[in-house]
Amino acid sequence: MADWAEVAFTSKGTVLLSDPSITTDAIDTSGAVLIVAAVGDLDGLSVVTDNKGNTYTALTAHVSTANTSPSVPAGDTGGGSRLHYVLNPIVGSGHTFTSTGTASNIFVIAYEGPADPAFDRENGAHRTVPGTTINTGTITPRSSPALVITGYADRAAVAGAGVFDFPGVIGGSVRHAESPFNLHHFTVGYGYAVQFARASISARWQGNALFDTGQAAVIASFVGGGTTNAPIRYEDPCSIAEPRIFATVKTDDEILKFGIQPLRDSAALGGYAEPRLIEVSQMTRASSDPATGAWSAQTASMKWADTDRVNRERSDDRTSFRNCDAEIYLTSNVQRLAGDPPRVLFAGTVYEDSADANLVLSTTINDLIGSNYSLFSEEKQIPQRVIERNWFPNAPDEALGQAEPIVGGRRAVLNPADFTTDLGVPIEGVSKGVYVGQVQINGSHGTPTGTTLDDIVAALNTSGAAGTIYVDWGFKIGYGDAVALQSYYDSNGTVPTDYDGLAHIIGFSDLDAWLAEEVHTGGDLYEAVLIAAHAISEILPAANAEPSIWVGDTQVALADIGVSVWAPQIPGDTSWAADIDTDLFTDIRGANSETRRYTLILFDPGSTHGLAVADGAVVHVDCVGLEDEGDGTGAPLVDYFTLYRHVLINFILQDYQWGAWLDSPHFLFSDGVTLLDRVDADSFDVASTVAGLTVTGGYQGSFTLADRVSVRDVIANFNMSGGCLLAQDDYGRLFVKVLDVRRTEFLRNRYTGTVPKILRDKVDFLMGFSITAKPEWQVNKLTYQYAQNGYSGAYERDAGGGGNTVFVEDLTSQARDGVLKKTVAFAYLADDLTADAVANYYLQLFKDLPRVAQYTRRGLCGLEDDLLDGRSVTHYNGYGANGWQAHAVWVIGKTFDPRRMVSTFTALDVEARLLAEEVTAPEPLTLDPVALEDLFDDVSGDPLYADT
Amino acid sequence: MAETFLYFHPADNVAPIATASLQTGSADTDYPIENLTDLGYATIAAPAKTTGTSGAFMLDWGAAQRVDYVVLWHNFDAALAVSVQMHAANSWAGPTVTTSVTIPAKRADTHTRKVGVDLRSVTGYSTSGFRYLRINVSGTNSALLGLKVLAFSRVRQLSRDFHWGVQDDDNQIGIDMKTDAGVSWGYDLMSAPRVLRGSATLSDADAEAVREWHRACAGVVKPCVLVPEPSGTDAWLVRWLPGGTFSVVGAQIFVSKVTHQRDFVDLNQTQLAFEEITAGDPEWF
């Protein structure tokens, strides 16, 4: 791919504030594929034109609302910054550019670069109070090389220097930073860099270092590859003639790279691959189960020649390669010689490695979720965080080990009358809290305990004599180590009394942490109930319009709020900020100095509610859970797929503790530099959009993850409740997809945006096409339950009744095939519309005998199809008199055989589902309802329904 | 009778005991100069590379070292100006031994041909040897230089060559598939090892020498060099081929054999077979 490079540059600044426009001197833009103008002006409203007739697209303007210029009227704006661009412009010599607006200053740079340039990402920031520096905010270009451009404007009392940098820029360099215009106290700037490896990037600008100014700054990226959404630009697999397979394993301090052949790659491609790869297994990736949502662990394996035993040594040094990131790649000689990246065939982590006979080392890689699966030990449990005395030293025994709840979406009863006391009094509050004992609020954090080695030895010996090291200290030193230490005590009559001896048993890090323990002293004591292991968005009102906070069956009276009960996020309440904290959450620093963020409800220990809580009364609330900032100030997350993504990134793949929400985890691409997201965040947005075609506003999520369950159950629940499939894509990223029944959209490739050709029998397929029925999936009466009440432990919309119809059915199918029933739980849904839409999705997909096709595409062309792609198949073996003609299938499984260089697919037959929508629901009426009175006769123009 | 083929024991290669350096030019840090002589598993196929298109690679044994034959595994263009030199000091204005090497054209499959250089016939050659060996690339290559060097302290030959009928196989390894409609699709794995098979009538002494050769190579395990036509420069880096004279005991255990059929006193019929190590790829991609 051609690199980005500057072709020509020009700039012009306004002379008078009243100038209506400015025009640059002429430049020769021949060869440019992109022209970008950065305009600094008064209000961000300037328009850019040129004398070649190009049309410029304006990106988002950022305008400071603060200024310190003496010539600017009070309340006037500061500087405005905006980028304008044109792709594949008309170019040539004598090219001039005009900016029309108020106090325009314009920079223009013409670039040569990829033949198919595309705008990629943008961000920006502006000051509302004067300052000296500003950061544009971060963007992560979708691929590399990326042209990253930043613009800046300020309006200051004293003109500034307008200097900037790209903090931490990877693989590129700042190539241009123009001197600012200093007229009328405007300082404007423009700069760019070419980023050769994909990574997040921002620009930091400084105006006059000595004077605060109103500032605005923007940043945008441009990449090659046209409109493709792929994070890395793979080569066309059909063009590969000389394929090469290699694998990488990333240990703690090195990246191992092994090929079937030696690959003498450049450093930019990750360097030399030793020819140790004796065997690579078939690599099967499959979506979550369409009928159950279950995620099957996906595995690939490889065998390395280890004749010189170096990898046995590496493995042994860290006890095994387990949990090392590992990827298997395919490339070609053409791609390598061009310095372009390989294709990920499988990405995950090492699940096991074994030293086999004849000095072969075998390694098994599991996908990111499947790597947590286990037959023997406890699988990763969600929520991962549990209540411990490290953070809640006064927690009652029964609270220890309980999950710290994750609360998402709007959590409230649908109908207060659904849950009542014996006397018929409604009980609300569906999200249950956990009593964690008394906590100290305010006071001094981080006070050293002064614990010494002698203290620790004495405490351990006391427990050792009682045979209770496991019970007393297992939580602190690890239960396995506690058993070993008790055994040592039993043999020696004491635990080791020296540092090294003790650390060798309980671990150096555990002993160090113990010695460094801190306590929280001073402050006020409250009885505390843990509502969420994160900040939440809002405590909702109950039916009586007072905060829906309940102690047992009793609602906390409004009069008690701020007197004996405190909670953050009660709309209109100021007592939390006044009495507890200005933060809308509570950060607790543990004895080990690690901090966790919580939403707590606090009770005066001497109050009626405080005493009840301490006595075991359950506190439960209605609330809106997760929000998008992590500190309680953000917008609430209620969209189902936004919530799914958020939980996946923060609580499943990673373990959020406190602070801002986490970015997607990454893995290091084979070049050793590029970071690839583990989660395709955009796919969740697309899923929301598609869901919005069925339910206005999209699917709504609602859940309290309060009981620890296996990660596989949580994933299955998310897939099931959302009527979506989860898969790992061709870039090693987890992504979701909702069936889009619009044929063209269903078939459109999510990377290229184009609809691929029909796959043809006998031409595109190798022998072996088959169609298999899936009778176990068929259902024509689907009963579903949702709206789980965490306090009552029941579904408000349950299979046995509730306030709505809780089943959907297809009578035609029942008459033909008999009644095929199934009951499912949508554990993470709480509203009728979403639940109904999801239930109907399953019914329509599975009411007639489901079928899956299996076919093998010849050659590497099969790699162009990703999981969950839609494809059209024409095949003589298909059903019907003519077989299958352009028959729609949904790819749910893909196996790549590296020995044969072919891909075998499993695909769900969805033709009937698409056909039904095309016949029964004309798209314009479904998607964009038009009022009858707005319909007019095409010929006469008369209203068609004038009387309605 | 044509001169018999040349062969070498792995231990005859004294290059690994020398200190390798770039006498002129700078090294690619990803393909360091240590690769120049390293035939270990990890880097047998990894060359030493330079950051330029000309330069000089040097071996220093610290004391005089006899070198009879040099093999260059390279990425040099055809007819590139390259010389192999030896000298007692690290000064190259007038090396005692210097010979120009004719770099052959690449094969049609883009594999380079390894070049053997027999120093014994070069003016200035001495069995006492010299401390320094230099491969001087004075021409400009089309690619950054890549090189691996083998330097042998002696040349071995049997008293008789192969019989007529030596079988020289050219192998091209690929993947092929075909749909029911006959649409074919193939992939080139570009692993193109040549195979040499032949028979020889050997004296008892030669038969024992062949046994020793087989033992020195540990059968199929250690690569060695074979020059089928001594008057040429086509040096093969080969392993003994476990074909025709091997048996399988378990999945991956090869028992490599060399069998002499003793027909008469001092008369042995022997089958020899070798497979070239191409490192699986056109060199230096």
Question: How would you characterize the overall build of this protein?
Answer:
- The complex is a heterodimer of chains A (948) and B (285).
- Chain A contains 17 helices and 58 strands.
- In chain A, strands 19-18-25-26-27-24-22 form a seven-stranded antiparallel β-sheet. In chain A, strands 23, 49, 50, 55, 56, 57 and 58 form a seven-stranded mixed β-sheet that branches.
- Mean pLDDT of chain A is 88; it is low at 921-930.
- The radius of gyration of chain A is 31 Å and the shape is globular.
- With 948 residues, chain A is of the alpha+beta class.
- The relative contact order of chain A is 0.08.
- In chain A, helix 10 (640-652) packs antiparallel against helix 12.
- Chain B is mostly beta strands and 285 residues long.
- Chain B has one helix and 21 strands.
- The two termini of chain B are 40 Å apart.
- Chains A and B meet through strand 20 and helix 2 of A and strand 13 and strand 14 of B.
